[in-house]
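To whoever is on call:

I kicked off a structure prediction for a single chain this morning and the downstream step that reads the tokens threw a length-mismatch warning. I double-checked the sequence; it's 295 residues and nothing unusual in it as far as I can see. Pasting both halves so you can look.
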Amino acid sequence: MGTFAGHALPGSFFILFSIWWMIQYAYEQIALDNGRQQPRGRIMRTLHRLPIEGITVVLAGFIGFIAENMYPSPKWGIFDKDGNFAYTHVWQHCEMYTFFALYGLADILSKTCMPKAEKYTKILGSLAFFVEGLLFHFHTVGRTTIDTHLHNLLVYAIAACVVLTLAEAFYPKEGRFRALRCVAVLLQGTWFFQVGTVLYWPPSGKPWDDEDMANLMFLTEAFAWHLLVDILLMLMVYGISCLVLKKTGLTAVHYRKMNGIADGEDIEFGTRVLLDNGAPNNLDSDNELFDSSPH
């Protein structure tokens, strides 16, 4: 991860998933009427059952694990020839990939052969974010002031992901936690790009002055601007998704009411069907991914 590409890759991953989760949220609200509707077509029903997100997360974690140990040269050992710990930063990254892959695996199992595992997917997602934040908190030992400041701000974004994902696990019907989690994950993704740009691809072509405190102040300001822009972006994604679904979704795909649901009657969150994966079940949990929704 010690390159611009190494920061851009996970940043892109978090950005894409946060946008996808917000689209899912709009889809559930508009096309599925908060879970009161389900698609009639065979293709759409099949898409609902496929654990697409879980598979994607597992593959991403596996690829990241292999890439960390193979690029630019193999480094699978934990100790060097003198018996000292080696490649500690590499193995920290591998731990992060492993915990996210476990989350994805739990999501796959919950949508296939172990439906009861669904109530624990968000807890595992929160755990994966926690491990990521823990490792990044101690990732900058011995590094420059700017490097440390950049990663400390990243830890704040990760902490928000931990809290909001865990909140979803205990309050699955509260859509505000879900929307805020999308913003937090997007903030983490865009800040990864900021870290890579400052450390490895500065616009001026010169490293940032580590002794200039104005640089640290600017980075703190930039973090707040990232948050504002990410909130606006999520609102735009939600608005566009709702507009498209209202204009085309209910006519392009034919929906019918779910059996046993009367008009105006609330439905338990565990019976909702989302586009991302999984047949509905009666568990009190969400149907998404890294979490969600993800997740």
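Update from on-call: the warning came from a stale cache, not from the record. Cleared it. Sanity check on the structure: The chain has one domain: 4-271.
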